[in-house]
Structure formats: C-alpha cells, structure tokens
Amino acid sequence: MSKLITFFIAFAILIPSSFAATIHVPGNYATIQAGVNAAANGDTVLVGPGTYTESVTIQNVTIHLLTSNGPDATKIIRTGSGLISCLTVYTSSEIRGFTLERSGAYLTAATLQVLDGSPLVHHNLIKCIAEGVICVEIAGSGSPQFLNNTLYGLDDDFNYGFKVTSSAVCPTIKNNIVYLNPSIFGPEYGIYNQAGAAIIHTYNDFYQCTLSGTSLGLGEIQTNPLFVGGSPYSYHLQSNSPCIDTGVPIFTDPDFTRSDMGCFYYDQGTLSVNVTVTLTPDTIPVQIPASGGSFDYNIAVANPEAFSVPANVWFMITLPSGVLWGPIQNPINVNLNAGFSGNRDRTQFIRGSISPGSYTYHAYIGLYPGIIWDHSCFGFEKLITGGESEVYDWYCTGESFDEWQTTPEIDISAEFNLRGAYPNPFNPSTAISYQLSALSFVNLAVYDLSGRKVAELVNGWRDIGSHEVTFDASDLSSGMYLYKLHVSGSGVIPTIDTGKMVLMK
Fold first, then answer.
1. Tens of pLDDT, residues 273-292
2. Among 32-36, 270-274, 395-399, 501-505, the least confident range
3. Which residues contact 311 (CB under 8 A, 6 or more apart)?
4. Residues 375 and 432 in one domain
5. Quick one: 340 and 385 in the same domain?
6. In degrees rounded to 5, what are phi and psi of residue 34?
7. Residue 241 in 3-state DSSP?
8. How many whole angstroms separate alpha carbon 129 and alpha carbon 425?
9. Does 163 map to a domain?
10. Has residue 269 been placed in a domain?
11. Looking at the whole model, is its pTM more than 0.70?
C-alpha cells in the first residue's frame, strides 16, 4: 500500500482546458532559467537535487517552480557584488522547496525579489550572507503570500528579513521564521515596511530583529527557534523548539498536528491509514476511438480499520508524455465507517481532441492532493481511427457515491460532532451541519488558505441537537476554504474541529 509521499498546501482546484506540462531540470534543460523560459502558463518546472549557480527571473508567465527533494537538496546560489538576486518574480507563480542563498560584498540586492504579481512563496530557506542584504524584497501592487519560509541573515551589518518598498502591495506573511544576527551598527529588521503598505502578518518568529512600520501581530514571537545546527548547519527544528505547533491554528502539518513555523516541520509521527481503493475495467483492452468515447469500470474502496476515516477519492490520467494530469473530476469527500466496504460501477468519457497514444487512468484515496494512502490504475489506448460522434468534454457518470459520504454514528458522550459541508465541492453555497450533545456556545467561521477569516457563520449559544448553517460564497474566488467549529460553555469541554471545502465557479 502507498505510504505518505508528500505534502502540499491545498489550493484552488482548476481543471485546465489543455494539458499543462512538467519541465524537468536538469532532465530537459540544464539550467532553471532555461526551463522557465520554455514554460507556458500553468506549467510546472520541477527542479532536481543540486546546486544551481545562476540568477532566475520569472516574467510574463505564471508557473509552478518546485523542487523534487526540498531545500536541503536543491539550492540556487548567487555570489559576487552587484544588484542581481537569486530569484526575481513578476507574476503570480508558485515557488516551493528551494534554498536561495545570496553572498558577496556589500550589496543592496535581495536574495528573493517579488516585484509584481501575487506569487505564493512557501517552504523555502532564504539566506543572505553579506553586508546590507535583504532576504526578501516586496514591491509592485499584488497580494503575494509568504508561508512557512525560513529567512536567515548571517552578517552583522544591516540585514533585512522582509523589506516592503511599495505602498500598493498587500503581502501576507504567516508561519515564517526570521533569524538575523545582531548588527553592530543598528537594529536588524524582521519586517521593514518602508512604504507604509497594508501587511497581513501573524504567527511568525522574529528572532534578534525588530519591526519597522508595523508591530507584532497575532501569535508572533521573538524567540530563538532552536535550529538543530551542527556542520553543515541544519535549519530543522529541535524537539523543544518554540516554533513547533505554534503556526496558524487552522493549518496542519503532514503529521496531522498544528502547523509549525519555518520551512521544515518537526515530524511528530506520520499517520498511515489502511484504506484501499481498487479499479477494475469492464473489458480489456480499453480502447478509445479517434472521435472520443468512454469506458466502463468498477471502483471499490474498503476501510478495515476499527475507526471511521474521512478521506478524498480523486482521479488522474498519465498522458503519453508521462505527465500526470488532473484531477479529471472534482475530488470526492468520503467518510468511511469502521469496517466499510463498497463498490460503484461508473463510466468515464474521454474527449476526442486528445492525442493518440497510451494513457493510464488512476484512482487515489487519501487527503487530496498530497497524502496518498492507496492507489489503483489501468491503461487505455487512444486510437487514430474510428468513432462516430465527437466527444467534446471529460465527464463521469454512473452509480452515486452518496453512500460513501455518510456520516458515522454520533457518539452521544462527545460534546459535538462536526458533520461537514454538503455539497462539497459547491457553487455558490453549501450547508455546514453539526450536532451538539449539550447547550453550548458555538463559533463557526470560514477561512481562506492564508488564514484570513472570510465569514463568521455562528457566534452564540445553541441548544442540544442538530444544526445547519448556509455559507454563501458568491463574492469569493474559486479555491479551497477551511471552516472551524469552536464549542465551549458552562459544563462543556472547549473543543475545536475543522474541515475543508472547495468552491468551484
């Protein structure tokens, strides 16, 4: 059975009209910049382990620039004098999993420059090893997000963590560690809000540095993060680090504990769940004519555990090029009771416009998109001839998954049960239901993935029994949202539970 293989912050689930490509560095191109130059909007540039001595610019294209092995194994290093950074970003791209290191003589260049757009920068180690260097410079007029990065300034002369140089930009800074060596000439700045921008920052650690143009926000500390250290120096957290389980409360790490600060989480034990998924095609071989067509299959899932398991089931396709594409239908939220087993007969339609060749149809069960507990697949062939009427889109029909989405029996000894949101995914509204076993004070709120509260649905006393509240997201953008239920009150043990839902417009 598949084990936990990786972890991603979940973002908007969009099904593209054409296939996005994955460009491998150094497999397809020797340098990161060459891979970026070859990319189109929506493509992924996946960078393998190694040290890349170059300066990379992302301009006029929105991509995912990711590493396969994380900051310990993949580094972009820029040395020498001048104003050239390791990485400069002008678009709303995603940057994940790098060590960015800038060193040299006295500089005013930043290790990372975000000069426009609304990029997502997360799980990176960003270092400046020179006098006067800025770890991250933020300009432009977008809304960039900086989540779970570690910023480290080694020199003792005027280092900056985040320097904001435009009043029009609105950055979000959460779950970061900024560690700067004390300056012999003046203060070091964790955030230097030079232009008076509207900065959203919570749950960060600013060690040996101060803030200018803003003040400490919710959940922020100024404490030694207690890196492992050693030689070579490790920026992983020691077991007694104050940055463990002190990040944004509604975020979770891959070990299912509250999020840590910094680019490396401290693993408190990885969950592996013994649920299974099995795909069986009705006929073999599976062949699709040139005009498009369909195939029938059976999908079976089982939960042999002695406890209920909430999970997602989703479907992907491996293209003839080897690129894994999807999900080809919305991920299905399931709640598998203890001992549950079930199967469904389904029909998948394949659009006629895809290229001839060999494809693989996959089903996954786990927590979409990055935690996979089990996987099953079979192949199909797209032919160059045949067919009558053209199939213009992907869609899947057949027996409903409703039975798999049942809620387990409520433990009446528990203070409450968060039943979840239905429908999910939804557009534009969904209903969130919960059960109370006692008179309780209830707060139910919805957050986006930056931790910003977008709606407060309940804030008051509610009686024993079942309750349902509608969340209307007409004014919000497509993407993943988290809802948090906090139950407290006289005679009630204060308890928090969370869930996730996807708005698909």
1. 789 999 999 999 999 999 99
2. 270-274
3. 273, 275, 333, 334, 335, 336, 365, 366, 367, 373
4. no
5. yes
6. -65, -40
7. coil
8. 46
9. yes
10. no
11. no
